[in-house]
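Anyone? Bumping this.
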Amino acid sequence: MEEIDELLKSKNLKKTKARRLILDYLNHSAPRTAGEIFSDIREKDPRLSLSTIYRNCEALAEQGILVKSSLLEDGMARYEYPRNGHIHHAICLGCNRIFPIDDCPFGQFDQIMSNKYDFDVTKHRIEIYGYCHDCRKAGKDPSAPIQEK
Amino acid sequence: MEEIDELLKSKNLKKTKARRLILDYLNHSAPRTAGEIFSDIREKDPRLSLSTIYRNCEALAEQGILVKSSLLEDGMARYEYPRNGHIHHAICLGCNRIFPIDDCPFGQFDQIMSNKYDFDVTKHRIEIYGYCHDCRKAGKDPSAPIQEK
DNA sequence: TTAGATGCAAATGTTTTGCAGGGCT
DNA sequence: AGCCCTGCAAAACATTTGCATCTAA
């Protein structure tokens, strides 16, 4: 991951094993909590500590390399490596999986905000909740009969 | 607040002082944390406890009467009384105030999601971050010289 | 060499829960 | 009366921090 090394250097962050592991891991997965990252990359380096994950994710998010957000309603922060710029998600209420979406329905909405609300938009977040193909098939959609959790 | 009483009855929730105070309070304010609700309605009934606030907000959110979300990036859950159906916010990065917005830029986006991603949208959330009029005036916008926090 | 990174353990702050008593219907 | 609701205190959890030690540059 030379790309990652350059990214770190450009932000004056030292290239440490922890950072490379975190970025490489997030580069191949959906938004994850610190705990999830911890237990998943622990296999590759068992001596990493949870506080290192927290400190690094925080630092990387501050530098804009990762995006921190709380998508699900469990109140936990999740970190994500923004592969294609914009980050919008579709969150399945059946399985809690998080799907990236690349359409941005915003268009000229920033302009409306400025004109109507006198508000300067610097970023926005869109989250879409619903049911994915699999969960609809599994009968977890709203029109299906009520089921056990 | 007869409206509130009916709402509670329709959800099989007892009409308690705590619930009426919480709903009345949120009916007149922006999304609030449990702690904020606690200290604000404490004035009206000093014997209310924080856990009662948590339990009630949770119950009311489960019944769909309140909406729970984590808008700001401080990791704290906020509860909101959805006055006009849709809930979208403009969050000022200068003063952290939360402004409701009533335009919904989504239009036929749900249709796109269904066609392109095979995803059934049941709800969505839009959060807009930026700078409000006041904060721009106060020089807190991004183009202003760097300031102390 | 030296500022920055890390591990560990302890502290923090929010949210949850157990239990005994009190209030709504 | 009966069940839900509440207060209080303690527990559970995610996240942060202090400090001594290590490591990348």
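Late reply, but here is one note on the structure posted above: The interface with chain A takes residues 68-70, 73, 75-77, 90, 92-93, 99, 101, 103, 105-107, 109, 112-113, 116-133, 136, 141-142 of chain B (CB under 8 Å).
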